[in-house]
Amino acid sequence: MKKHHTLYFLPILALASLPMMLGEADSLHPVLSGPDRAYLNTRVVFWCSTPGLSSKVKYRLIRDRRFLVGTKVSPKGDQIATFPLKVKAASDGSYHCKATAGESTGFSNRIKLSVVTPPSNTRVTSEPSPPVVYEGSRIRLSCDAEQGSHLNYTWYFNRKEITSSNSGFSIAGNKLVMEKVTLEQEGNYNCIVWSVVQNTSRYSTSAEVKVTVKVKISKPEISISVFKDGDNYLGNVTCWSSTGSPPVNFSLLLDDKEVRSITVTDSLAAWFDVPVVIGLNMGEAQCQGRTQVQDLKSETLTLDIVPVGGDVRVEVDYLYTAEAKLTAAKLSCHISRGTFPHFSWLLNDSILMSESQDNFQPQTDLSHRKQALILSKLSPENSGYYRCRARDSYEISGPWADSAAVLIQITDELLNSMAQASSCIETSQKLFTEVIMIVFCCFFLLMLAAASACVYKMFDHSQGFTISFHLSEPESQSVGLQSGTLSSDVQNQVNPAVNPGLKLNI
Q1: Are 224 and 237 in contact (CB under 8 A)?
Q2: Which of 349, 393, 348, 354 is nearest to 373 (CA)?
Q3: Backbone angles phi, psi at 435, to 5 degrees
Q4: Could you tell me which of 320, 343, 344, 340 has the C-alpha nearest to residue 330?
Q5: Counting beta carbons within 10 angstroms of the beta carbon of residue 118, is it exposed (0 to 12), middle (13 to 18) or buried (19 or more)?
Q6: What is the C-alpha to C-alpha distance for residues 169 and 128, in angstroms, rounded to an integer?
Q7: Contact 102, 74 (CB under 8 A)
Q8: Residue 459, SS3?
Q9: Is 30 exposed, middle or buried (0-12, 13-18, 19+ CB in 10 A)?
Q10: Which residues, 6+ apart, have CB-to-CB distance to 337 below 8 Å?
Q11: Closest CA to 143 of 183, 174, 104
């Protein structure tokens, strides 16, 4: 029976002793101090103490609540126990200190130690790779360190730091993004990876990466020239774009079918030789230009080589300055047909060599099948019979088609008369200017005289006006002044110095 009663009281005794056990556990309050970050393979120190405790105390440094790092015994609790530690990768974790003095035990605060690995072997990668993009495309650069933790990133463009104030750049973590790259963003990029522990920084710098920005090609253009190869004729078709960045793949299409193709890497033009038959329509030719992001076609060109022939004529136009002075003569040679004409000019049946004569300047317009000859220096020596002739440019020994001769007669009398006429025009202009000035002066004087007369009449008329006086007294008085006659009494009333209460209304 007693044994049963004893069993009933055991739980009660255990609960009664729990406050005493808790009181002993809470009687010690150790304090742990130390770093929260440390570089890998460096040494750090943790300190543990129990302020106010004078008895002997035993300290244990524990990581993550279960790994014993070290044990120290201090003769007095308020003396600091040191725990040196070489930082390894496994040293990362939560540390606390357990203090034991006799039957009393206490636990310190916790410190989370982060092991920082310094960055190393940093490099820049790109997407796309290699970093070659067209204007307006997207490119992303990444700054990657082979190893490292707790890293920060700084980007540089042509060795100048990229900040948030630089437009066109977006930085997120180790990424540098250009959504729509421009030509101004072409250049060298590199990054620096760094970390900081207790005011100590470690850096790793990447090599520079060249970002190339290409220009999109303009719409291709097409042209053709013809030359003779033995008894056959070949058409040399030129395909080109005025702007853009190579490489470009040019193709020659004939009636929408590709017949030739070539990729150029150092220019924006390509040439294709195709056989042609003079006088026969060979179809519609077209150039196609392709890049990684473009596929463009030129306008069509009809491969119809028409030989020179038909009527050839010369037209003459005289060119004058703004002062009506004869300054040049323009002779135009027209042919009725011919795709590739070659022109020649003759003066008095002698061929003009324009390359050696400055006063003859030929200007060819193949689209309108004509050539103009400018006589820039008019003199009697240039007078004579002019005519032109034309042949096919691809037939060096081919027949010529001649025009009729046109007489251009330039004499000293003509030049003098033109000079006199120019002088007369200049004199007339000066005379006209002088007449305008005289008319303006006369008009101004007339207006001045009219204005003077009006002013004089106004002053002359003002001598006969009537003045009414209104006194401030209850009894008003009106006085009329005629022809400047005033009595002395009225003058005294008008004078404000004599009668200050008088109001004058006109």
Answers
A1: yes
A2: 354
A3: -60, -45
A4: 320
A5: buried
A6: 17
A7: no
A8: helix
A9: buried
A10: 306, 307, 308, 309, 310, 369
A11: 174
- In the chain, the N- to C-terminal Cα span, in Å, equals 142
Could you tell me which residues come within 8 angstroms of residue 97 by beta carbon, excluding any fewer than 6 positions away?
30, 31, 32, 46, 48, 59, 60, 61, 62, 107, 108
Sign, CA torsion 412/418/423/427: positive
- Identify which of 126, 113, 118 has the alpha carbon closest to the alpha carbon of residue 69: 113
| Cα gap 163→156, rounded to integer Å | 9
Residue 338, classified by CB atoms within 10 Å of its CB into exposed (0-12), middle (13-18) or buried (19+), is buried
Per-residue pLDDT in tens (0 to 9) along the chain, 506 residues:
444 444 444 444 343 343 333 333 457 899 999 999 999 999 999 999 998 888 899 999 999 999 999 999 988 877 899 999 999 999 999 999 999 998 899 999 999 999 999 999 999 999 999 999 999 999 999 999 999 999 999 999 999 999 888 899 999 999 999 999 999 999 999 999 999 998 899 999 999 999 999 999 999 999 999 999 888 999 999 999 999 999 999 999 999 999 999 999 999 999 999 999 999 999 999 999 999 899 999 999 999 999 999 999 999 998 888 877 888 889 999 999 999 999 999 999 998 875 445 556 666 655 555 688 888 877 788 889 999 999 999 998 889 999 999 998 877 665 555 555 445 556 666 777 878 888 888 888 888 888 888 887 777 665 544 444 444 444 444 333 333 433 334 344 434 434 444 343 32
Ramachandran sector of residue 370 (left: φ over 0; alpha: ψ -120 to 50; beta: rest): beta
328 in Cβ contact with 366 (< 8 Å): no
Q: How many residues does the chain have?
A: 506
pTM score, two decimals? 0.59
